[in-house]
Amino acid sequence: MKIKKYIFILASVLFVNTSCSQYLDINDDPNKPTKAELNKVLTGAEYDIAMSFASGNYIGSSLPSYVFHLSSREVDNFGITASSAALGNSWLQAYAYGLKNTDAVISAAEEGGNLIYAGIGKLLKAYAFTSVVDLWGDVPFTEFNVEGNYAPALDKSQAVYNSLLALVDEAIGNLNNTDAPNLLKPASDDLIYNGDKNKWIRMGNTLKLKLLVQSRKAKGEITGWNEKLTALLAENNFIKDGEDFEFKHTAKDNPDERNPAYVDEYLGGQSTYYISPWLFETMSGLDLNVKDNPLAGITDPRIPYYWVNQIKADGEAQNTTDYRSGAFVSIFFASNSSSSGNDQRSTSSFIGIYPCGGKYDDGKGGKCDKSVGTGIAPEKMLQAYSVPFLLAELYLTGEVTGDAKAALEAGIKRSITHVNTVSQAAKADGVAVPTIAADAITAFVGKVLAKFDAAANNEEKLRIVMTQKWIANFFNPVEAYNDIRRTGYPTLLSPSTDYAKSPYKSSKAPELGPIDIPLKGINAYPRAMWYPTSEITRNPNVTNSGRNLSTPLVFWDK
After folding, report:
1. How far apart are alpha carbons 120 and 117 in whole angstroms?
2. C-alpha distances in Å from residue 86, one per residue of 77, 230, 368, 480
3. Do residue 202 and residue 286 come from a single domain?
4. Whole-model pTM?
5. How far apart are the C-alpha atoms of 407 and 232, rounded to whole Å?
6. What is the DSSP letter of 239?
7. What is the 3-state secondary structure (H, E, C) of 464-533?
8. What is the CATH number of the domain that holds 455?
9. 336 domain residue, yes or no
10. For the segment 105-140, what is each residue's pLDDT rounded down to a tens digit?
11. Between 261 and which of 212, 272, 356, 549 could a Cys-Cys bridge form, CB atoms 3.0 to 4.6 Å apart?
């Protein structure tokens, strides 16, 4: 089994290099910086917030199993436990480092009248707390970071949401304040928007839209939900193409600035992410296991950017296979077959250029290791493509009136634009990586929209929208996890499923099947995360006693 290195005690606030700025030790107490050090602590806060839920990092290495049915040597069958180091480290990274650093930014910025910094700090804090609440439900908020309080009480998830909506409004007010002295203004120390306050305002509006859509089934518990949504949609000032709220990586390896999932997978000794056959079939338009595939018969042009096959369709596998379809070799979620534990590193399909800056699949096969790829792929947090998908959900659920079909089209096109942008930035020197051509995009979108038009009702149309959003959010697992719990889409494996099927037989040489793959008893879908054991031992207010993950625990999960 692959051993991951997790850190419970992190050194100072951070010491990481990026192409934009040098992270360095900011002072003796990083959580009480002087005004002159605002530029340093902002950089640190952005890094720590991004890494709290990053792909390949802590919970970001485990949660994809829940939302994309990726199989893993470490996590399978919804198996994240309270004692999981991944779980504990995400909690610690967010609370002890990211959120404390955002408070440090806010405090120092407000004291000096540098309200652009204050507004950015508040938006970072609101984003991070949104993820924490969405994963765990009730969490420490009002008593968080109170000096001398080592056992903060938990706030109800709906109370935190109301506070976060107010915090976003406060942040936007800070950014719009023309009377503030703002003697210090962020520039290259802002690794996300380079100090562009208008982009930060659009990010804040987009985060607010996400909070409102996320809570739509429990809108009675959000103060002024309807009024907030009406005003927000009337303003219509959201993240645009190319303005994604994301943390960018570089190809530098000393210190290592590459995407953690790339480092994990391409440089590791054993694979962590076995690409989901469920995702493979959905994007390939197949229905062998995905019986009600809403995209049946449609091949997605993003496939060679999402994963890469190390062998050709007529190639021999390293060992007998669990799930194989032509060149695609993987493990089925919750598989109990005799081949599921076989070493398959040299012939299994790998995550590709888009999710982690790995290799583009040119159809020629070839080994995935440190000699290919760059690791240049961003941590996706809040994306431009999410905006039209969120709007389409509002339209189809009758919250507001609008053109859901046009919104779906815009979401797919924005997603493909992002794939093209990332793949061009991530390709290695001298390696040809084509963009998805305009005619291919038009043809693909047209087929999806035809399915949308043919859907029997708005519920079936919503399933198509959410399935496309799920595909777009590959390796953005927190948002995908929220969508699945809120809408029930995309359709995932039924707990009553005893067998899956592989198109090919399990032999090392390619041989047409299909064959049955026995599955373990699939556990109930977890509606939230366990509180980490590491936090339970520190805070008597945090307990898993009586916590039933198979029932809704977050207020919006209706």
Report:
1. 5
2. 16, 39, 25, 18
3. no
4. 0.93
5. 17
6. P
7. HHHHHHHHHCCCCHHHHHHHHHHHCCCCCCCCCCCEEEEEECCCCCCCEEEEEEEECCCCCCCCCCCCCH
8. 1.20.120.840
9. no
10. 999 999 999 999 999 999 999 999 999 999 999 999
11. 356
